[in-house]
Specification:
The structure holds two protein chains of two kinds. Chain A is of the alpha/beta class. In chain A, the strands form three sheets. Chain A has an eight-stranded mixed sheet with strand order 15-16-14-13-12-11-10-17, with helices on both faces. In chain A, strands 2-1-3-4-5 form a five-stranded parallel sheet, with helices on both faces. Helix content of chain B is 59%, strand content 0%. The chains are: A alpha/beta, B mainly alpha.
Chain lengths: 580, 81
């Protein structure tokens, strides 16, 4: 059966109980098939895409008319699917003298669309870039000419990247890359383009749908955080226990090169913030020696957050890694060359992503890249240090075992917290935390950077981040608090989220002390908290009860005047608001 | 490939694309007989038939299709080449 047919048949299935995501599709060509593919793919991902599809070629009308169906529908996401064929047609209608500036003009028009949407909705925008069709009017010489379509369409794609770097709510669906990966000829269907103005082939549409969904899911906080690696014949060729340090294959010779390339890629992922762990059946000291001593190894001991090397079964080891890192199985990827191990692990932990590595190590890396496993919707400089943070956490855990008394232990940590308003410097990390945090997150509200900018400038909100340092290092920003001033006057805790790395350190008590202070300063007598259960936040079910809030009609309330400041072993450092 | 065999293959494609169509598909079946058979599912149908029989239709051939018999005859000619 065609994959497209399978997806379309999903439309008749029961979407009950799936999370609903409201999406608008605007396109300058036929979009019914894209609509069906996306809706059907949603079923596979247990998402109910509630889709408003605008009439054919109504992008501008829908966006510039403030009373349009688009604004009526108020989507969370707007997909703008522009088509290269339509762009080419517009290009041909441009005078030769105007063609040098064609890309700039087209980018400007798109920018106007985005600004208009931003003014009216807080929706995220997913914009298709353009398939770089060469009309072969000039052949290769198109590269030499600023007024060729090839030059202008490539330039336009770069201008869209620049726009996306400026606009926090804008995400590019990279159709050009997808086309390159899939092959130009099978991505386009000339017949349906001519007969129905629908140029993406049935084969290609499911891939577009998958790509869009990956962007949407990462915006909604569902993405991979951790890569767990087997060693023998996965990270290097051969078996270290049998072949020894000199016998394993890695480096520039023969098949060793395939493993070197894979390791280089893993190292880049680590720099991007993916936590790298090892899970292998080996003697620990023998395996570690490779990381420490082999001259060709790219990955070194510092790159690995958790080293689970022993003769226990891999399912147990992956459970151990998960609980050490405090993340969900659905945010982990496991690489192993053995189909047997993969099957065993996948059966025991279905939520885990377990790619079926090809037989030939030469195919490992291209295959993994083609899966696009590590989609993300944010990046901050702190990401680079994530593996390091988790290593420090492992050290803290071992120190904790030494101290019987918890207070005693907390004192020795010499913790220092920095409270900073949500501002230009903290927004990127704060937005990212709101997207990543699932467990210690009372209401699981996801904010983009644009959302947080609005909140930071609104007098109706008090918002701050907490950075925590201790004698082992800087944990970075670990908490985001957003308080909404209500009429009563009371303070409603719209968001309280924390990184799970800093659990059981009294940070909750410390933060509540600060919230109460802020309530008092703002003449609020009551603080209202709310717990909205999600699939992953059972950890904080009793959060407000533990802190002394009282339950009233599903909301938790705390009196400011009768509050007794809680003891916390954290020094308070206040950072004043944003420098000019 | 013989015509009855082609028809059998076509029925398989129809069963995939039009679930529970409750129609006995034969030479005289047209888009009127199957509720879901519209311009959109027709795109799917054509691509699926092309794939099944490893052939390529021309746009003009798709336009002149009247019923399943016509479709079978075109497949017959193309697979015979």
């Amino acid at each position: 059966m065609l994959e497209f047919t399978r997806l379309r048949r999903n439309l008749k299935k029961d979407f009950n109980g799936f999370k609903t995501v409201r999406v608008a599709i605007l396109s300058d060509s036929s979009s019914q098939l894209l609509h069906q593919a996306l809706k059907g793919h949603g079923y596979d991902r247990q998402l109910n895409y509630d889709i408003y599809e605008a009439d054919y070629d109504q992008i501008e009308q829908q966006i510039f008319n403030p009373a349009s169906e688009l604004y009526d529908f108020a989507p969370e996401l707007i997909i703008i699917a522009k088509n290269t064929h339509a762009l080419l047609d517009r290009f041909y209608n441009t005078s030769i003298s105007g063609r040098n500036g064609f890309a700039k003009k087209a980018a400007y028009d798109i920018q106007s669309l985005i600004n208009k949407i931003n003014g009216q909705l807080s929706a995220k925008i997913i914009l298709f870039n353009f398939q770089e069709i060469d009309d072969k009017v000039f052949g290769n010489y198109a590269n030499n000419l600023a007024h060729s379509f090839l030059y202008q369409v490539r330039k336009l794609n770069v201008l869209l990247m620049e726009e996306a770097q400026m606009q926090k709510a804008l995400f590019i669906c990279d159709l050009q890359q997808l086309t390159m990966l899939h092959g130009f000829h099978s991505a386009l269907d000339n017949k349906t383009y001519i007969n129905a103005d629908q140029s993406w082939s049935l084969e290609f549409l499911p891939l577009i749908a998958k790509n869009i969904s990956a962007i949407i899911e990462s915006i909604n906080g569902n993405f991979k955080k951790c890569l767990v690696l087997d060693l023998d014949n996965t990270l290097w060729g051969g078996v270290i226990g049998d072949d020894g340090l000199e016998g394993i294959q890695i480096g520039s010779l023969g098949i060793g090169k395939a493993f070197t390339l894979l390791q280089k890629w893993v190292k880049e992922l680590k720099k991007r913030g993916i936590i790298i762990c090892v899970c292998s059946k080996n003697i620990e000291s023998v395996a570690k020696e490779v990381f420490e001593k082999h001259p060709e190894m790219i990955l070194r001991p510092d790159d690995i957050a958790v080293f689970a090397v022993n003769w226990d079964n891999k399912v147990d080891n992956i459970h151990f890694i998960k609980s050490t890192l405090n993340i969900g199985f659905d945010s982990m990827v496991f690489l192993d060359d053995s189909a047997f191990e993969r099957t065993m692990v996948k059966e025991a932990i279905p939520a885990l992503e377990v790619p079926s590595l090809p037989e030939d190590p030469a195919d490992y890396l291209p295959y993994l890249q083609s899966l696009n496993l590590f989609e993300t919707s944010s990046y901050t400089m702190e990401d680079e240090h994530r593996t390091c943070l988790y290593k420090e956490e492992a050290e803290r855990l071992s120190l904790q075992k030494v101290y019987q008394n918890e207070d005693e232990f907390l004192k020795t940590l010499q913790m220092e917290a920095e409270i900073a308003p949500v501002n230009t410097f903290t927004i990127p990390r704060a937005a990212q935390l709101s997207q990543r945090s699932n467990q210690f997150n009372l209401r699981t509200v996801r904010y983009t950077e644009a959302d947080l900018e609005k909140i930071a400038h609104s007098p109706g909100y008090i918002s701050f981040t907490v950075r925590l340092k201790d004698k082992f290092g800087d944990n970075g920003i670990i908490s985001l608090i957003i308080l909404k001033k209500d009429a009563q006057p009371s303070l409603f805790i719209e968001t309280w989220l924390m990184s799970c790395r800093v659990l059981k350190r009294g940070v909750e008590d410390f933060i509540l002390n600060r919230i109460v202070e802020m309530a008092a300063t703002n003449h609020c007598e009551t603080i209202i908290g709310e717990y909205l259960p999600s699939a992953k936040n059972a950890l904080v079910k009793d959060h407000y009860a533990k802190l002394g809030f009282e339950l009233e009609d599903s909301l938790w309330s705390l009196s400011v005047s009768s509050y007794k400041t809680k003891r916390a072993f954290i020094q308070n450092k206040i950072v004043q608001s944003e420098p000019a | 490939m013989e015509k009855p065999e082609i028809l059998k293959g076509l029925v398989e494609v129809f069963d995939e694309i039009f679930e529970n169509h409750n129609t006995t598909i034969n030479e005289t079946t047209t888009a009127q007989d199957i509720e879901e058979w519209d311009s959109l599912t027709n795109i799917e149908l054509i691509v699926a038939v092309e794939k099944k029989f490893d052939i390529q239709f021309r746009s003009s051939e798709i336009e002149t299709l009247g019923n399943v018999g016509d479709l079978r005859d075109i497949v017959f000619i193309k697979t015979a080449l």
